[in-house]
Specification:
mainly alpha, 8 helices
């Protein structure tokens, strides 16, 4: 399994299922994903393991138009989104804090997630613009834009 193979998988529908079917090879490529496999988030908002959450999130992005003569720009946008999803919460395993009610919190996990992505980004054959966009998506994925002022946007 190479990063080019992974990128091809990410452009397919149900890429989370395909990753699960090839997880040993994926884990060899990105060992941090293996650490997510049985990671309990201790969260009522995330009843699945961290790994399952990532796979479900990947499956939520449909790539049907990729097979229907999509433009290079459309393909790149889908790939950027799916790579960001793959890495968006991978840092949670390193930042978990359990509160007195047994609820897991993950302060600044987005920073660790971006750091992990950036460790692999040079091997992924992405443009600098794509790497920058993926970093922004990872770093800001928990911001509630509807609560931001126009100036903050």
């Amino acid at each position: 399994m190479t990063f080019n193979d992974l990128k091809k998988i990410l452009l397919l529908n149900n890429s989370g299922l395909i990753i699960k079917e090839n997880e040993d090879a994926i884990f060899a490529l990105i060992p941090e994903l293996l650490e997510c496999k049985d990671f309990n988030q201790h969260s009522p908002w995330h009843p699945y393991s961290l790994y399952e959450h990532i796979l479900y999130a990947l499956n939520s992005v449909k790539s049907e138009y990729i097979e229907l003569d999509a433009t290079e720009e459309e393909i790149e946008k889908t790939l950027i989104m799916k790579i960001a999803i793959l890495f968006h919460d991978i840092g949670k395993k390193d930042t978990q804090v359990i509160d007195s009610n047994g609820i897991g919190h993950f302060p600044n996990h987005w920073l660790v997630s971006a750091e992990i992505f950036n460790k692999y980004a040079p091997q992924m054959g992405l443009s600098n613009k794509a790497i920058s966009t993926i970093n922004k998506l990872i770093l800001y994925h928990e911001i509630r834009f509807e609560k931001m002022s126009e100036r903050e946007k």
